[in-house]
Write a structure and sequence with these properties.
mainly beta, Immunoglobulin-like, C8orf32 fold, 5-stranded antiparallel sheet, globular
């Protein structure tokens, strides 16, 4: 049975931790770290059942450094597809600038200009060189390019907005297509192979329902584009300049990639578009991802994969009742003197990010439970798990219910 779009939207769930603030208590609160970029670790796997009465578009089997897509079953009208994202740290130390003599010959194709991708062009090349001055590795150079585009360009998918790399560079605006074209142009101008990935974002992600993934609002939906970068020592790796660095989540269904033949039989026809009666059902999902750190850039809401040492302290854990059962949802108040920051939690898991050395006082609240207060000791650069216990109220009838604000979906 295929679920409705509304039902599917309700089935996709994600753990919400300490990166989303529902409110502030007191004036002048300063969070432990000001960055909006969260660093994730763990694994996220989704198995989709995709059905269309006129046929489902060909989907390739493909894998790179952090992403794997595999068609498990298929017939004329449906496909069961597994997408797995592994967020183990990216251990790339490939030196920058890249030595052309050490570059595999097959990578040279991904260094030249293409339609809408201007390479080695005047101001674009100059900006790329300026941004990466002092970069010691390919990863550092790519990160500098991505951070600059994310923080300085405006998302604009308007019909009258040109999406070629040159227009996006000078106009400082573009859609996923434009951001991808420009990032590839700048990377290739620096001698870093990069290519264009075409895909689809299923319903329940951001097609008709506006959804946050780890607190990051995603623009777009339906057909989508992102970039794949080649690191000489670890291989190819996806990034999405509307969403994440060095990974894409499993809501990115890959259709094809420019410059490589992922469809050797050249099968055509079918559709993935929900407007063409395609339905997506999550058959199975496993999500063990956890936010463990913050980065100074980009400054906009963004996600990243760990690539170096831990920057700040992180405390995470489960919130349980006295019997050991997880408390489904509630909130923590992270105090600084008389000022507090309200941090919602769901699925019994909390996470406090961006902590420096010191002691932090938190109050835990959830409807139907008594309040609990705890002092937590943090150390910068350390990740530790501390589980918290909420007591049942001594007099349930006289204990007011906690009014916890939780994230909600709104139509885009």
């Amino acid at each position: 049975m295929i679920e409705s779009r509304k039902a599917l939207g309700n089935r996709i769930f994600l753990i919400i931790g300490g990166w989303v603030a529902a409110g502030i208590l007191g004036a002048g609160w300063m969070s432990p770290a000001l960055s909006a970029t969260k660093v994730l670790t763990g694994k996220h796997v989704i198995v989709y059942d995709i059905v269309n009465p006129t046929g489902v578009e060909f989907l390739p089997n493909y894998s790179n450094n952090s992403y794997r897509q595999k068609v498990l079953q298929e017939d004329e009208f449906s496909k069961r597809v597994l997408i797995e994202v592994n967020l183990a740290p990216l251990h790339s130390t490939a030196p920058f600038p890249v030595s052309a003599r050490q570059m595999p010959s097959q990578m040279r194709y991904f260094l030249g200009p293409g339609k809408d991708i201007p390479v080695n062009e005047g101001n674009i090349l100059s900006r790329a060189r300026a941004l990466t001055q002092g970069s010691r590795t390919v990863h550092e150079a790519g990160t500098a390019i991505f951070n600059w585009i994310v923080d300085n360009f405006t998302y604009d998918a308007g019909r009258n907005t040109p999406q070629d790399g040159r227009s996006v560079f000078y106009g400082k605006r573009g859609s996923c297509v434009g951001f991808t074209n420009l990032s590839i142009a700048m990377l290739r101008s620096l001698g870093i192979p990069a290519r264009y990935a075409h895909g689809y974002l299923p319903p329940g992600y951001d097609w008709g329902i506006s959804k946050k993934y780890w607190g990051v609002q995603i623009s777009g939906g339906g057909y989508h584009a992102w970039v794949e970068v080649y690191y000489p020592d670890v291989g190819w790796c996806f990034s999405d300049l509307l969403h994440s660095k060095n990974f894409v989540d499993p809501f990115h269904v890959l259709r094809y990639t420019d410059g490589i033949n992922l469809n050797p039989r050249n099968i055509q026809g079918g559709s993935l578009d929900v407007e063409d009666a395609t339905t997506f059902t999550i058959f199975q999902e496993e999500n063990t991802t956890l936010a463990i750190d913050q980065l100074p850039l980009p400054k906009k809401d963004f996600l990243a994969r760990q690539t170096g040492s831990q920057q700040f302290g992180t405390i995470y854990g489960k919130i349980k009742d006295s019997s050991g059962k997880s408390v489904a949802r509630g909130s923590l108040v992270l105090w600084e003197g008389i000022q507090g920051k309200i941090i919602p939690f769901e699925n019994g898991l909390y996470s406090l990010l961006g902590l420096n050395d010191g002691k932090y006082r938190v109050t835990i609240r959830a409807e139907g439970y008594g309040e609990a207060e705890k002092n937590l000791q943090a150390r910068k650069g350390e990740v530790k798990q501390i589980d918290l216990v909420l007591p049942l109220p001594k007099n349930p009838k006289s204990t007011p219910a906690s009014k916890t604000k939780t994230p909600y979906r709104t139509k885009p």
